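Changelog excerpt

This revision adds worked examples to the README so contributors can see how folded entries look when concatenated. The first example is reproduced verbatim below.
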Amino acid sequence: MAGTDSNRRSAALFTPDDVASILHVSAAWVRDHATRKQPRLPSVKVGKLLRFRLEEIEDWIQEQSKGAA
């Protein structure tokens, strides 16, 4: 059942505040870049709420690192 725990973690959805903490930016910056500004953060809409998958945020960070190099 250990695989089930890792699947749950990878499927967990994070709030804009959670992502802001990971990226060391404001929650407003996260919302802006998830909805209208570039670079665009990958997000999921749950009703009116924005949520984020950690794996997609980590991939986004890698993409941004490649663009800066």
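The second example, added in the same revision:
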Amino acid sequence: MPSRRDNDNTKGLSLDVDEFLDQERRRERALKMQDAIRRGRTTPVAIRLDRFTLRRLKALAALRNTGYQTLLKQFVVERLYEEERRAGIIDARGR
């Protein structure tokens, strides 16, 4: 009969099994806290941009040290706010 040492599933792991499981529990707690803090997951959408506009967006995002999709989302949110204010949906103080 093979010994327990021959069937060790943890062979080659750099961490102790208990330490690994403890880290995994901490990661799970952190992810749960993130989900509680976030307003909600985003919904993927597809838009078509001409190459020139996309290059400009990526260049500006690089200057701001952010991703171009993040920057585009910020632009959309800012413009929505302006249009909602203009339409009287929200007042100038954002209430």
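Reviewer comment on example two: The chain has a mean pLDDT of 80. The chain has one domain: 14-86.
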